[in-house]
Structures are given as C-alpha cells and as structure tokens.
Design goal:
5-stranded antiparallel beta sheet; 17 helices; alpha+beta; disordered N terminus; 498 residues
C-alpha cells in the first residue's frame, strides 16, 4: 500500500505525519521499544522509549509499580518518584526528550497527551584528577564528561546564588547541551551577552567538544594563539569566575572554556598559589624564559651557523664546527629534520596505548637521537638545543599554548635561513604586531597596552594575597575590589621584645 503524501497541518503549523505519527517515525530504529503494560489493548498504559538510553533499574523500581489503571496522567505525575516529569502533547517535544533518555507514557496508544519521565542512563566515569593539568600540590579534582556533575563541582566551590547558569542547545543534529556560567554582579553583562550571542549564531551539525565552540566564537579564528583557555581544573574555573570571566561548559567534554583571557594567563599555573609568592614568581619567570628558549633555540642555531659565525666565541666555534664536520646537510635542513622527528615521536607517543606510548617517548627519543648523531646526519649540539626547546615548550600550563609555541618555531626557522638574524627579528616583530592587534571577546589579548596597575598584582607577577585588592580591569568587572579589608599584622618580635 502506497503511503500518502504528507500534507501540512494548518492548525499546528507542522507536517501531519510529524504531529500524529511520531511513533511510526521512531519505530524505524530497532532499539526503540513501544509496548503495552496490559494483555488487553483497551486498558492502559503504553510505554515508548529507547532501551539504549534509559536505565532499566529506574523503570522497574520507580515507574512501573506506580502505574494504576484508575489514575490519570496528571495524577501519576504527582506520585511517580522521578524528579523531571513533563506533561505534553507536542510531538517535537516528545521526540526531543525521547532522544535524551525519557520514557513516553500514554494511557492509550492513539492519545496525544503524553507523560515524559526522565529515566536516562547517566553512567559516566568517576570524578578524578585533571589528566592534562596535573600539579604536585593543591586541589587535584578535575572535570568529567557529564555536564551536571561539572556544574555540581563548580557550585561546591562557589555556593552562592550569584552563580548563574544559562543553558542552551547547540548543533543541528547533536543538540548538545551547553552551559554559560558567570557570577552576577561581577562579570560584565556585555561579555555575557557577547558569549551567548556568538553561541546562538553557531550553525553546525555536530558539537562534539568544547574546543569546537571555542574555535567558532573566537575573535580571530585564523590566529595561532588560543584566545580562550581550555581547562580541566575546578580551581582555575572558580578563580576565573570570581574575577569576572565567563565559563563555557559543553556536555560530553571534560574541558571548560574561559573567556576573555590574556596571553600571560597561559603561563599561570594554579600551583603557583600553593607556594610562597616569591617562589611562585620564580616558577612563573622560568616559564616565560622557557617559551623564548623553545621558540629561539633552533632558529638562532640556523641563523648563526649559516650567516653569523663571527658572533660565536672562538672556543665555542671550534666545538660547533667539530660537531658538524661529518654532517652532509646545511644547518637549515639539519634543524628542520630534527624538529620534525621530535614532533613525530611525540605524536606517536600520544596515539599509541598509554604504556607503550610512554616507553616510546623516552626510549625512542634517546635511541633515535643517538643513532642520528652517530650516523653523522646531525650534530650533537643541535640535538641538545632541539631537546631543550622541546622540553621548554612543555612548561606551559595550558596545553594548547605549548602547541602554538612548537609550531611557531618552524616559520621562524625558514626566515632565519633566508635572512639570518634579521629573519628571526622579523618573525618576532610580526608576532608582536599580531598580538597587539589580537583581542579575546573584544578585550586586549596582550594586556600590555594600556598598562594597568592590576596587571602587576597577579598577571606578570604575583604579589602577596594582601596586595591583590582589585579584579583585573581588562575584564571590566562590576565588582572592582576582591578583598573587603586588610588584616592587621602584628609587629615582628625582636630580641628586646617583652
């Protein structure tokens, strides 16, 4: 029998098949269940659900025992011990919630009225430590892939009613739950509206991770530098909220996105606040220096060994020339080959199983590096510089930023081959101009111009907590001060103290 063509339903404004035959549409899938709770068809109730999305324990313990024939759907709604229950006859709402793990309960099969009961199977991994942002001391709790659990972790850190959440669905097919989190009274409303508007403007079929959204809402999607911070750490998110940042959480992703951010925040580790402010500044300065070493080591080697031998002291020049006696390649190809080899070892270590990848990263790097030097394909001095630069790139607390630094050295190596030290200077000059023009959510990304006093409280340097009195002005927070008063410190005792 040939099916009839779909005719528009003028009253509902939706196709008739979608309005009345949502059950027929969903029954095409083998994991969809539509069954009757009674032997006699004229008696209630009819159940519809996806067996791969629901929890059978909740169904048999909290729903089926309460299905009494003399009760209406509204009466059942008041006695079934499930938190989220919806009474509706809208077919779009029925389909949408069935795909989320709800149970559709009807008294009779042809009824339009339906009771939607949330019996979704919400089994996720347990809360554990942050995998990509580990620390020796301080809080170790990291986010997981379940949105509600992540919101629970944040609210435990900030148990105040000012913590507000805006929930949205993004993705034409995935219908991914997205939450925009901010502190009312601290965050700039303009920043909140900008984030919400940009997320609403996203038109994409499938949003799988928070990285999808962060790349879609950035001010400059062609920049190498991440204009947001992706983090697994609960303490970093809580600290950002209290300063006026906006948090984007995506269901299915353990990484939450912080906006707006500055370049220097990519060098800040939450572990710094667990040490004395002097030691914390020492580690922060080491990270600053490590990024320059990572970006400059190989380009400087190529530039100096190609054009500027006169800059090398005589004793060091003898060592460098001796290490390159048997190398058949020019410094440019030598450095490029070694840098690519290091990146290949890193990528292989990530893709392989954990234990095998860990062994490959350590043993493979040593064995291959030693073999390349003994074969005369590269100098041992360059091997040391490349290894030092790679090691320095991993000191960045934000993983995405370390990838930026490692990629940045390749175009600078090419410029150093063409123009020598002038090429290195041009590479950094172009980068500096790009960073000055770059913004994050419309706010300056470099945070060096205009110079603000709050940048010297906890950005470039970390002062004692007693000196950190103001929130970063680059965020334009509604609440300017972060401390309510100063503790009166007693005078230190001396030898004549009585």
């Amino acid at each position: 029998m040939t099916p009839k063509a779909e005719q528009p339903d003028k009253e509902a404004g939706t196709p008739k098949s979608e309005d009345q035959n949502w059950l027929q549409r969903l029954s095409k899938s083998n994991d969809f269940v539509h069954k009757h709770t009674s032997i006699k068809e004229e008696k209630p109730f009819w159940l519809s659900y996806y067996r791969t999305l629901i929890s059978s324990d909740i169904l048999h313990q909290d729903v089926l025992p309460f299905l009494q024939e003399n009760l209406s759907l509204q009466e059942l709604k008041s006695i079934i011990p499930v938190q989220e229950i919806i009474f509706t006859k809208d077919p779009k709402e029925i389909i949408q919630n069935l795909m989320r793990g709800f149970l559709a309960l009807q008294r009779h099969e042809q009824d339009k009225e339906c009771l939607l009961i949330n019996i979704a199977n919400s089994k996720f991994r347990d809360v554990s430590v942050a995998m990509m942002e580990s620390s020796a001391i301080g809080p170790q709790v990291g986010f997981i892939e379940e949105l509600d659990t992540n919101l629970n972790l944040i609210r435990k850190r900030l148990p105040v009613p000012e913590l507000l959440v805006i929930e949205m669905k993004v993705g034409e097919l995935s219908k991914t739950n997205v939450a925009v989190i901010y502190m009312d009274g601290i965050a700039d409303p303009e920043n909140v509206n900008t984030v919400v508007q940009r997320i609403n403007d996203v038109q994409y079929d499938h949003i799988q991770d928070s990285a999808y959204l962060s790349s879609m809402i950035e001010d400059n999607t062609n920049s190498l530098f991440p204009q947001s911070i992706s983090t697994e750490r609960v303490d970093r998110v809580a600290a950002g909220l209290t300063e006026g940042k906006i948090i984007i959480a995506v269901d299915g992703s353990p990484n939450l996105v912080l906006v707006p951010v500055t370049l220097v925040e990519s060098f800040i580790a939450m572990e710094d606040y667990s040490y004395s402010w002097i030691i914390g500044n020492f580690f922060r300065l080491i990270r600053f220096g490590a990024m320059f070493i990572s970006g400059l080591a190989s380009p400087l080697y190529v530039a100096i060994m190609t054009y500027h031998y006169e800059l090398i002291p005589a004793p060091l020049l003898e060592t460098l020339v001796g290490s390159r006696v048997n190398v058949p390649f020019p410094p440019f190809l030598e450095a490029l080959m070694l840098e690519i080899m290091i990146e290949m070892v890193k990528e292989a270590g990530i893709r392989l199983p954990f234990k095998i990848g860990q062994s490959l990263g350590v043993v493979g790097g040593i064995v291959i590096g030693q073999a390349v030097v003994e074969a005369g394909l590269t100098s041992n001095v360059l091997l040391i510089l490349v290894g030092l630069g790679t090691l320095a790139s991993y000191t960045a607390p934000v993983y995405k930023f370390s990838n930026t630094v490692r990629f940045f050295k390749f175009p600078v190596i090419i410029l150093s081959q063409w123009f020598g030290l002038l090429g290195v200077f041009l590479g950094f000059q172009f980068t500096a101009i790009h960073l000055i023009r770059l913004t994050s959510l419309g706010r300056p990304y470099l945070s060096m111009y205009p110079i603000r006093s709050t940048s010297f409280q906890d950005l470039w340097f970390r002062l004692p907590f007693s000196k950190q009195k103001e929130n970063p002005t680059t965020l334009r927070p509604q609440k300017k001060r972060k401390s309510t008063g100063n503790r009166e410190n007693p005078e230190p005792a001396n030898d004549f103290y009585e």
